[in-house]
Amino acid sequence: MLQPLKIFRTKKGELGFDFDDGSRAIFRLRDLRLACPCALCVDENTGEKLLDPKTVPEDIRLESIQSIGRYAVGILWSDGHRTGIYPYELLKRLTKQP
Predict the structure, then answer these.
(1) Considering the entire predicted model, what is its pTM?
(2) Per-residue confidence at 2, pLDDT binned at 50, 70, 90?
(3) Are strands 62-68 and 24-27 parallel, antiparallel or unpaired?
(4) Which CATH number fits the domain 28-94, given the four candidates 2.40.50.140, 3.40.1120.10, 3.40.50.360, 3.30.2020.30?
(5) What is the DSSP string of 15-55?
(6) Could you tell me if 42 and 34 are in contact, meaning their C-beta atoms sit under 8 angstroms apart?
(7) Is the pLDDT of residue 66 over 80?
(8) Cβ neighbours of residue 58 under 8 Å, at least 6 residues apart?
(9) What are phi and psi of 69, to 5 degrees?
(10) For 30, phi and psi rounded to 5 degrees?
(11) Residue 97 pLDDT > 80
């Protein structure tokens, strides 16, 4: 099971993960917020994105981050969104998208 060795912020304010398989994932905060996989942001039946990108501020901030078991992180965003759980496997896959 993929595990982060380190979770960090970059000088640009991005959120990064160094994983135990030697890979690294670094995200602009807004991009990570837009990728939220929760049922409020993505239709559970169709997979259709429900989150309107226009509603997410360019300068969104990470208010807090916490471990969810050994498989994910939960993030509280400055827009009040708090239901997103980001599995480590999803974070790794997101770094490979064009």
Answers:
(1) 0.91
(2) very high
(3) unpaired
(4) 3.30.2020.30
(5) EEEEETTS-EEEE-HHHHHHT--STTTB-TTT--B---GGG
(6) no
(7) yes
(8) 30
(9) 55, -140
(10) -65, -40
(11) no
Domain ranges of the chain: 28-94
Q: How far is CA 16 from the centre of its chain?
A: 10
Give the length of the chain.
98
CA 46 to chain centroid, in Å, comes to 21
- Dist CA 61 CA 15 (whole Å): 10
Planar angle of CA 66, 76, 10, nearest 5 degrees? 75
* Dihedral angle sign, alpha carbons of residues 14, 72, 25, 49: negative
Rounded CA-CA distance 75/89 in Å is 16
Whether 2 and 92 have beta carbons less than 8 Å apart is answered as: yes
